[in-house]
Each structure stands twice: as C-alpha cells, then as structure tokens.
C-alpha cells in the first residue's frame, strides 16, 4: 500500500496528543505527509450578527494560533496544517486536504 497522506484531526485535547504520536509514527513509517487539521464551527447566533461575527473571527484566530503550535513527535516528518471553517460534510471533496 502506498500511503501518501495521514490526516490527523485535533480538538487540542490532551488525548489528541496520544493520537498525534500514532499519526506521526504512521507518517514516518510510510514517508507520508502528516496533515494536522482542526475544524472550527461558528457559534449559534444569539446576538446581533456583528457581535457574533467578531467573536467567530477571534475564535478562528485563536484556533489558528493553537493549530500552529501542534508539532509532530518527530520533526523530520513533513507537516501541513489545515484549519477547516464551518460544519464539515460527509464526502467533502473541496476541503483542500
């Protein structure tokens, strides 16, 4: 089997660190690129749209900063980080992964 990409989805929880070690090992073993992804879903609208938009923009910025801090356990593994915005759909063909 020729594995070219390993997708590691993170919620930034402590348990995701264990999964990151496994994903890193798989990527290294297969010479694959490790894609570290996080999905940020906008909050439900309870206030004015401007307020919600500002909060979502701040959350998105914080998520990107947190995503940038996620490092594979082996720094020789090729890594790409992807922040997916909005609700994910099954069979997403345009997720740029």
Explain what this protein looks like in three dimensions.
- With 97 residues, the chain is of the alpha/beta class.
- It contains two helices and three strands, in the order E-H-E-H-E.
- 11% of the residues are buried.
Count of helical segments?
A: 2
Indicate the structural class: alpha/beta
**Apparent shape:** elongated
Order of helices and strands: EHEHE
pLDDT below 50 for ≥5 consecutive residues: which ranges?
none
Distance between the termini: 19 Å
Summarize the amount of helix as a percent range: 25-40%
Strand order of the largest sheet: 1-2-3
What percent of residues are in strands? Answer: 15-25%
Radius of gyration, CA atoms, in whole angstroms: 15 Å
Number of strands: 3
Q: What keyword list fits this structure?
A:
alpha/beta; 97 residues; elongated
List the helices and strands and how they pair.
Blueprint: E1 5-9, H1 14-30, E2 33-40, H2 49-69, E3 79-85
Task: Offer a quick outline of the entry.
The protein is of the alpha/beta class and 97 residues long. It is 39% helix and 21% strand. It has two helices and three strands; from the N terminus they run E-H-E-H-E.
